[in-house]
Amino acid sequence: MKLKFNLLVFIGLLLCSTSTAHSQSQATTLPYAEIPAAPKKYNACTVAARMLDGLGFRYYWATEGLRPEDLAFKPSESGRTADATLDHIYGLASVVLNSVKELPNTSPRPNPPTTFEEKRRRTLAAIKEASDILKKTKPRKMKDFKIIFERGDSRSEFPFWNQLNGPMSDALWHVGQVVTFRRSSGNPMNPKVSVLQGKIRQ
Fold this sequence. Notes:
Strands 1-2-3 form a three-stranded mixed sheet. Strands 4-5 form a two-stranded antiparallel ribbon. Helices cover about 55% and strands about 10% of the residues. Mean pLDDT is about 90; it is low at about 5-25. The chain is mainly alpha-helical. The protein is built from six helices and five strands; from the N terminus they run ααααβαββαββ. It has helices spanning about 1-30, 45-65, 70, 80-100, 115-135, 160-185, and strands at about 105, 145-150, 155-160, 195, 200. The chain has a single domain, classed as dinb family like domain (Four Helix Bundle (Hemerythrin (Met), subunit A), Up-down Bundle).
């Protein structure tokens, strides 16, 4: 009997440690828990990349620890839920990434994420990849990073300028909404997050 009890305790501890290790591994693999080091040079590409890094950091902490009830929250019957807002942010991040990869945005969007965890991971990865591409790019290349929308036979193009006042600014706007929504649903963002310093205050 004692052997069975000890065996059950051991299995329970093993499961707990495996779950904790998985959570810690997932947390350390997601980018933007802290903002990356600033680029050494100021130019059009590095400034745009830094804007994306700021977005990634804010998004990381706006979405860290969201519960199902937080995702389901919406400010009014006609409003968008936090989860639907995250869908929109994912779409905006994809538009930015496609722009710097010189790819069109098609509708419907291929292979959308189906869970919150996947959506969060893929949004952060898209922001990080776009930032990394910009950091390695010569400023003269910026003119090639157009926003391209393709809908059947219809195609429209916008210069990278429109990324700044469009998708990038829009994504920041909506991240702020998620922060407000989670506060309203009783799960405020970590108060130690310093968006100025890009890290958690000790």
